[in-house]
Automatic annotation (TrEMBL):
An annotated Gene Ontology molecular function: cAMP binding
Domain (Cyclic nucleotide-binding): residue spans on this chain: 93-176
InterPro entries from the UniProt entry: cNMP-bd_dom, cNMP-bd_dom_sf, POPDC1-3, POPDC1-3_dom, RmlC-like_jellyroll
GO CC aspect terms: bicellular tight junction; lateral plasma membrane
Name the UniProt record assigns to this protein: CRP-like cAMP-binding protein
PROSITE patterns according to UniProt: CNMP_BINDING_3
Protein's membrane topology: Multi-pass membrane protein
Keyword set, alphabetical order: Cell adhesion, Cell junction, Cell membrane, Developmental protein, Glycoprotein, Membrane, Tight junction, Transmembrane, Transmembrane helix
GO biological process, one term: cell adhesion
Transmembrane segments annotated in the record for this chain: 6-23, 28-46, 58-75
């Protein structure tokens, strides 16, 4: 009976170990792995006078390693937990970024509610900040003529920052239905340049976000040009 129970527990332990590798979430993988090594430890101890001392330290060691990593992941996830506002911005502005780099980007920025009419950038002037719209709209004007509107998840001032040149257009905060201005997250250009120099992970995360936004804007612009071309084509 004891041999049957020992064999049964070993099979359960191996099944649980195999189950751990089916989880895509590394936290669950670690926690289930802890369960499997605990089962192996019980089997090693339950053999009475034939305790498997040569294997028990390994089982307990792997248990401690996986449990320690799981606790570290839980701690980190509490640090990288989003507020509702951050979660909404992550979904529309940084969907390709995982939680940790997205949270780092947002921690380095400042949240602001802009007054309607506030100019985020001025044509032919260097911008002091790079913005991303979290809520509301921003009007883009060129030579005092409105040409586009930017909404949630779209950046303002990023082209001038990347190219190191003055803004190519003026951007103006518009009022919402409740007469408030747009809600934005902004980074000082000087601070961004310093972070780019000393923090390669931050730089990669920001470049990924800016690149995705630029690609979307280019695509929208190409569609607009195509539509104008079709409209102007004589029948």
């Amino acid at each position: 009976m004891a041999e049957f129970l020992e064999g049964f527990l070993l099979h359960i332990g191996f099944a649980v170990a195999g189950l751990a590798y089916l989880f895509r979430d590394i936290l669950w993988l670690r926690l289930v792995a802890v369960g499997s090594y605990l089962i192996f430890s019980v089997v090693a101890i339950s053999r009475g006078p034939e305790v498997m001392w040569e294997f028990l330290p390994w089982y307990l060691g792997f248990t401690v390693i996986n449990l320690g990593h799981a606790l570290l992941l839980i701690y980190q996830r509490r640090l990288w937990k989003f507020t509702p506002e951050e979660a909404a911005l992550h979904a529309c502005a940084f969907p390709a970024l995982s939680r940790q780099p997205a949270k780092r980007l947002m921690r380095q920025g400042r949240w602001k509610t802009l007054e309607p009419g506030f100019r985020l950038t001025r044509e032919e002037h260097f911008a002091g900040c790079v913005y991303v719209v979290a809520d509301g709209c921003v009007q883009v004007t060129l030579k005092n003529q409105p040409i586009a509107q930017l909404g949630c998840g779209q950046f303002v001032g990023e082209v001038g920052f990347i190219a190191g040149r003055p803004a190519s257009a003026t951007t103006i905060a518009l009022s919402n239905e409740d007469s408030a201005g747009p809600r934005v997250l902004c980074w000082s250009v000087k601070k961004l340049r310093k972070l780019f120099e000393k923090d390669s992970d931050f730089r990669l995360a920001m470049e990924s976000a800016l690149g995705s936004d630029l690609a979307r804007k280019i695509g929208d612009n190409n569609i607009a040009i195509q539509r104008r071309s079709e409209f102007a084509t004589p029948l």
